[in-house]
Amino acid sequence: MPPKDNDTRPFRELAATGFNNVFLSLERLAGGLVTALMALFALGALTAVLLACLLGVGLLMLPAALRVLRAVADRERHRLSRWGPPVPSPTAASGPDTVTGALTVLVGDAQVRRDLAWLGCHATLGLGTGLLGVLLPVLAVRDGTFPLWWWLLSPDTAGASIGFPVRDWYAALAVGLSGVAWGAIMFGFEPALARLQSWPGRRLLGPHSRTVLNERITELTVTRAAALQSHTRELRRIERALHDGAQSRLVSVIIQLGSARRALKTHPERAEDALERAQTAAEDALSELRGLVRGILPPVLETHGLEGALGALAAGCSAPCTVEAGDLGPLASSTEATAYFTVAEAVTNVTRHSGAGHAGIRIDREGDTLYVHIHDDGRGGAAEHAGTGLSGIRRRVEAHDGVFTVHSPEGGPTDVRVELPCAS
Fold first, then answer.
1. Three-state helix/strand/coil letters over 85-97
2. How far apart are CA 159 and CA 171, in angstroms?
3. Where is 309: in which H helix or E strand?
4. Would strands 403-407 and 369-376 be described as parallel, antiparallel, or unpaired?
5. Which of 48, 267, 287, 403 could cross-link with 419 by S-S, CB 3.0 to 4.6 Å?
6. E-strand spans in 298-411?
7. Average pLDDT of the residues in 356-383
8. How far apart are CA 223 and CA 351, in angstroms?
9. Burial status of residue 44 (CB atoms within 10 A of its CB: 0-12, 13-18, 19 or more)
10. Is the backbone of residue 408 left (phi > 0), alpha (psi -120 to 50) or beta?
């Protein structure tokens, strides 16, 4: 029979979760109250500037007012990003610098109009929910502890937070019970108030759908162009390798065989040497072709899978290198090849440039995303423009709509992270 202590564990965990949610919601509401006060100030200033613009004198202040709007909106974006999905700032500049630019964005920029709509909502709804959310715990503590200190007050000033007077202990205890009720209301409504306060920001401060679509089209255009360029360079590399390597060696084989054939008629004792040279040239050509094939799609991926292929790369690293792999599931061959070549390039950088004493490879899959992390404790300072092959990794990853990041401060360590979509 399990100990009695275990019988109450689910209830303790549920209570702890409830307390955490309430206090987290209270923190969010307090932060939202601060930005709501900023929004109220910005709304008043912007309204005054717009009214002054009707007289012509406010036009000079319009750029500054729009920059204040952007600053307050960005502050709310940052706050919302701390508590949930990130709300990115617009990619445009922080605000117009000229009157003409201010009028242009005010009329033609959809995001500025959305920021204005949010400003009005947050200065009213956000301010009200923030005040209520912060006031509820104050009322709960004030009325809940009222029976402990009400007798210190004069009869004319003793009263509950909602206004009714207190003349005796019965009324004081009733005020204490109302404090418990305020606490129950706080636990029940604080999370909902926090969600209500943040809803306009998440609805209006995020990028407009047309903006997202345009940015996505631009991104796809750039990555597809980079993929085509990379594909063209790869075809040229294969062509050069075939022409300058395997083809020249096969020509040498033909020449050596022709020489051996003539030697059989005139000097049979020299035919053996010519055939041996032809065999050597054929073996070199075969080795060249095998190396070329491995550069296109490594056979180790077919024979040992991605985890085994990464193990082979780790074994060839100059520093001790470990491989950790989660449950990867079935992956497309293009995704496996991209992950393999990414790790291969990173391991090559570790061997040639880092001077690391230890390196590690971590690969895992979460849902439809493959995560690759290569870490080393070397000297750092890796940069894409320094000829370390990182720019090639980025082009290869972005061609698959992936994300590539590198963090390599001077003195180390170096972390290379790759996210590849792998939906079937």
1. CCCCCCCCCCCCC
2. 9
3. helix 299-315
4. unpaired
5. 403
6. 321-325, 359-366, 369-376, 403-407
7. 85
8. 29
9. exposed
10. beta
Angle separating helix axes 209-241 and 390-398, nearest 10 degrees: 120
**3 state DSSP class of 161:** coil
Tokens 């491995």 map to which residue? Answer: 294
Give me the count of residues in the chain: 424
Edge-to-edge strand list for the sheet holding 403-407: 321-325, 359-366, 369-376, 414-421, 403-407
Give phi and psi for 399, each to the nearest 5: -65, -20
d(CA 5, CA 17): 19
Asked if 417 and 393 count as a contact pair (C-beta separation under 8 A), the reply is: no
Tokens in use for 113?
Answer: 């109009």
* Backbone dihedral angles phi then psi of residue 150, each to the nearest 5 degrees: -65, -30
CB distance 416 to 353 below 8 Å: no
pLDDT in tens, 376-399: 888 887 777 665 677 777 877 877
pTM above 0.70, yes or no: no
